[in-house]
Amino acid sequence: MSAILLSASASFAVFAGAEPNTHQIIIQGGEYIPAELTIQVGDTVQWINKDFIPHTATAQDEAQQVLWDTGNLNKGDSAEVQFTEVGLSEYICLYHPVMKAQITVEAVL
Amino acid sequence: MKKFTVSALAFAAAISTTAAVAGPMNDLEIAHTAYTAGNLDIRYAHLALAISEDATVREFAQTMLRDHAAVNDEAVALITKLKVTPQDNDLSKALVKGAADKRAELMGLSGKKFDCAYAQNELGYHQVVNKTVANEFIPNVTVAPLKELLSNALVTFKLHEGHAENMVKKLSC
Question: B42 by DSSP, 3-state: which?
Fold first, then answer.
């Protein structure tokens, strides 16, 4: 699963055949809302932390190598990741591994 | 399994005794005890970082430092806004005494023995604290912002309880 961490001001890459969208996931009450999200390749996902404790959204492979990571998100912080490959991306909060969610990236039709 | 129940039972016994002797705690006492419980867990975490070399234990301890500091920052902001002073009370005193005894016990351990004792204590501590916050503190507190703070804090502490449960399993204690 390839993904690119974007800053809030970064411009999106252009993918032929579709306009990339930005999707929002709220972190609140120790949960990612929604916990399951389906997007199209080239889309961007933005996480916003509304809890007063820090969180991350981080995908790792079986060897615990980081595939993509929002980095530390304090209360009110946000971060964006652009998804550039089709596939299922499961992720956790590095600080609270009981928090789990997933993003399904589909091909552009 | 025997050791972690010591501080948890001390906490539970203190709550029971305090409630029986003094009646329900007021808002300022609840605020003091909740803040104290967070600070005590921060002290356990500092001890873990000083003694443990286990990555799982150290990551958990770092999370306790980060989260309890954030919760306590919110608590300080609230009491500053409300212009009130939390009241020390018998339960807070009992918690401080129980935690001092537990830290003394933990400081005599090292390696896997320390890791297991710390992990089991964290699990027991969060189980009892969460039950107390949910069943005693939140229903009894009267000021809405404090009730909201405790409710949000409980969400965090439940994450910690699940995390501690996984830590105990991973350590195969």
Answer: helix
